[in-house]
Design brief:
elongated, 4-stranded antiparallel β-sheet
């Protein structure tokens, strides 16, 4: 009769200890870095809106806005009801876009009576700032809103440069209030602190 060789030889036990020990150490190390995992969903989270924030806006804040439904895009566009509406004077006011299926909100600065590219010129007490702006994507409009917020709080003076012609922008207190309201509502929708 043949003698059976043992399955768990001392060499095999040593190899198992090395691999199992290494695996256990790796699991422990990676568990500390769980928040740094790659987001492979293909969707950025910077425009996500929680249900509670969306309902707050729709139920309480949307009464100040004119609403336009875009069926083809599954979006609702909210434009502030007190914004400047003129067919001859250039205006540049933000609108809020709520995407119902993706549960996202976008800020979009709408230029009326003018063409892109434009420049926004800001005069503060001691500085003159020029922000070039072309019709960009969602991130560009959000970044513009984040840039403008602290300057609006400082009561800076704004003008719009369209084809080298300077036009006053957000000059009256009511126009600045419209801008502040829309930006405040947008950052509240995204549940982000105002910049």
């Amino acid at each position: 009769m043949l003698k059976k060789s043992p399955v768990l030889t001392p060499d095999l036990i040593l190899i198992l200890k090395i691999f199992l020990g290494t695996a256990l150490v790796m699991v422990l190390v990676f568990s500390f870095f769980d928040g740094y995992r790659a987001d492979n969903t293909g969707k950025g989270r910077s425009f996500q809106v929680a249900d509670a924030d969306r309902l707050f806006f729709i139920n309480l804040r949307s009464i100040h806005y004119d609403r336009e439904i875009r069926q083809e895009a599954d979006m609702v566009i909210y434009r502030h009801g007190k914004r400047l509406k003129s067919d001859t004077v250039p205006s540049f006011f933000p609108a809020l876009f709520l995407h119902s299926k993706q549960k996202e909100a976008y800020l979009f600065f709408e230029l009326a009576v003018g063409e892109y590219p434009i420049q926004i010129q800001i005069k503060t007490d001691d500085h003159l700032i020029q922000i070039p702006f072309d019709l960009g994507g969602n991130a560009a409009h959000k970044a513009l809103g984040e840039q403008l917020w602290p300057l609006v709080q400082q009561n800076a003076s704004f003008s719009l440069l369209v084809r080298d012609k300077e036009r006053p922008l957000w000059q009256t207190e009511s126009e600045k209030e419209v801008l502040k309201t829309v930006l405040t509502d947008y950052f509240r929708l995204l549940n982000q602190p105002q910049p």
